[in-house]
Predict the 3D structure of the following.
Amino acid sequence: MPLSAAILTWAFGLVTGMRHALEPDHVAALSTLVAEGHGSRRTAWLGAWWGLGHTAALLVVGVALGALRTSLPASVEHALETGVAVMLMLLGARAIWLGVQEMRRGSDAWHRHGAAAHHHPAAGRHLHVGRWSLSPRAFLVGVVHGLAGSGALAVLAMSEFPGLPARLLFVALFGLGSVAAMAALSGLAGWHLSRLSERPGASAWLQLSAGLLSLVVGGLWF
């Protein structure tokens, strides 16, 4: 392949990776994590961690398939796509549960003592992310997405480039594009969400909305 054609193809990989990051299942999954974060910097890092996990899976599988000059069986690809659907539904269910819990914590409470009543205002927003912090979870979600899309990308790379190093560079540039796009999208979303979360009850509704979106996309993914 001439150098100019190779450069154009690698640029295509970078741009395609950016577009690929914005597919519905990716956005739905990240929305459930971004809804737990706060601030554009924190959520941008979540998007970057997702992209790194996505790229790591693509590179590992891409190296294996490229070295063997083979492709994933259709049954394996179907199983990986099903895994994405299950993950989306689990993320959605968890986000809805967190939203409900936050609504219960955040509702104002009135207490009566005899003839007197007094008011306890809602507590400020606080996060319980459990045993897993957000960044490792974003990385793991990216890995699952990367595994599901690795077969098609490996076939594309093998059809465009004859040598393994050139294929790996294509996959790496594809991954770089996905990291950049998801970090930018997550950072922008985090900036808007941090402003919305200042309103009473808004953060709980954001969790619920993200959860419902993830559930719907996961259900359609089967």
Notes: Helices lie at 3-21, 24-34, 40-68, 74-106, 134-160, 164-196, 202-221. The chain has one domain: 3-106+131-221. The longest strand covers residues 109-113.
